[in-house]
Specification:
404 residues; TIM Barrel; alpha/beta; 8-stranded parallel β-sheet; binds fe (iii) ion; binds 3-[(4S)-2,5-dioxoimidazolidin-4-yl]propanoic acid; 2 domains; Urease, subunit C, domain 1; 8-stranded mixed β-sheet; 15 helices
């Protein structure tokens, strides 16, 4: 979309372009056609560019960062699971509830019962929380439909949310989320079916990436391998819910397929870390799920850091294990619960989150990248990880278009 040549002036820029915050005081940023054309100290703005400006925003010293990126959500679903929260507080485990037919499958029933307009409406209402927190790109997984038609409906809702809000939305097929009741006892048949659905959904232009839940209560590494092989045949990138409840060797399997990311990772071991490092796979940490499940096993942050595996942070928004809708609270939790530094946590929702989605055109401020920007009433970007329950974002720009 065509956008006016626009100048943002008198800002503190946080570019995240190197290893540090990349702060530029008294900075300016010039965008045209939805891309960043120039940025730097305002006093150095080239005269030729200054002449081109058709819209100007004086930011009065506010902080200008790349728009945030939430690289792992399950935003589209019907119903809610507050009853299971109560059961877990009384001592039932997530896995026990799942085995008893609750868990993901109860959301599958509620999602199947909802029509497309209802799903769109519910997800659209939730999405406003992300818009209000400076999020410009959001990933949404299917996985609560588990039939071809129901998965298609959820993925269409993800596509329509992008049209409706202007946010950049990536749709990920998660047919391998849970075994639906129609296939009880026939997991391998279900994997065959979902691989066929994947081809159909891909042909409809509904899939940007493929994900699976590799776990004793979900799909085995051998089954995930078949799903990933189907994805590779279509040229689609893969991501994995790996080592959340136990070490299944999922991360090493995902790395074999050059996965963009492995997510959760509380039970990740040395072999998985080495494989992810060699493949350049991003570790996506999900402190909201850790918190909400009252998990006690921490992901191996120090080992990931030492190995140089890029770390992203995401809400994992879903009705079962992480019903929160605040990416800012999530990065605060990444610091308090997982001991990330504020810089690591902020890089985790910008540059490394972009990488976890295979989107090298965003997540930093640099010429040529998308003009996906957030303006904050903050003095320093470390405050993004510090306040919680605040809404310091004053404007959100996606591909040069002002939203909100
Ligand atoms: N891991 C998760 O945290 C979510 N899905 C998954 O594979 C949980 C989904 C749910 O409980 O509804
Ligand atoms: Fe998840």
């Amino acid at each position: 979309m065509k956008t006016l040549p626009t100048l943002y002036r008198n800002a503190t820029l946080c570019t995240l372009a190197g290893d540090d915050w990349g702060l530029i005081e008294h900075g300016a940023l010039f965008s045209r056609d939805g891309r960043i054309a120039w940025l730097g100290p305002e006093a150095q703005l080239p005269i030729a560019l200054a002449r081109e400006v058709q819209a100007e925003h004086v930011l009065q010293g506010a902080l200008l960062t790349p728009a945030l990126i939430d690289c792992h959500t399950h935003l589209v679903y019907g119903g809610q699971r507050a009853n299971e929260f109560e059961l877990r507080l009384e001592g039932a485990s997530y896995a026990e509830i799942a085995r008893a037919g609750g868990g993901i499958l109860s959301t599958v029933s509620a999602t199947r019962a909802a029509d497309e307009a209802q799903l769109l409406d519910a997800a659209g209402r939730r999405l406003r929380n992300w818009l209000g927190e400076g999020v410009g790109t959001l990933e949404i997984k299917s996985g609560y439909g588990l039939t071809l038609a129901d998965e298609a409906r959820c993925l269409r809702v993800a596509r329509r949310l992008q049209e409706r809000t202007g946010l950049s939305i990536r749709a990920t097929f998660l047919g391998a989320h849970s075994l639906p009741p129609e296939f009880a006892g026939r997991a391998d048949d279900y994997v065959n079916a979902l691989c066929a659905w994947l081809r159909e959904l891909h042909a409809q232009g509904l899939v940007d990436a493929v994900n699976a839940f590799c776990e004793s209560i979900a799909f085995s590494p051998a089954q995930v391998r078949r799903v990933f092989t189907a994805a590779r045949q279509l040229g689609l990138p893969v991501k994995l819910h790996a080592e959340q409840l136990s070490d299944q060797g999922g991360a090493a399997l995902a790395a074999e397929f050059s996965a963009l990311s492995c997510d959760h990772l509380e039970h990740l071991g040395e072999a998985g870390i080495a494989a992810m490092r060699a493949a350049g796979t991003v570790a996506v940490l999900l402190p909201g799920a850790y918190y909400f499940l009252r998990e006690t096993r921490l992901p191996p942050v120090a080992a990931l850091r030492a190995a140089g595996v890029p770390i992203a942070v995401s809400t994992d928004h879903n009705p079962g294990t992480s019903p929160g809708s605040s990416l800012l609270l999530t990065i605060n939790m990444a610091c308090t619960l997982f001991r990330l530094t504020p810089l690591e946590a902020v890089r985790g929702v910008t540059v490394n989150a972009a990488r976890a989605l295979g989107l090298p055109d965003r997540g930093q401020l640099a010429p040529g990248l998308r003009a996906d920007l957030a303006v904050w009433q903050l003095d320093h970007p470390r405050e993004l990880a510090y306040w919680f329950g605040h809404r310091p974002c004053s404007r959100l720009i996606v591909a040069g278009q002002e939203l909100s």
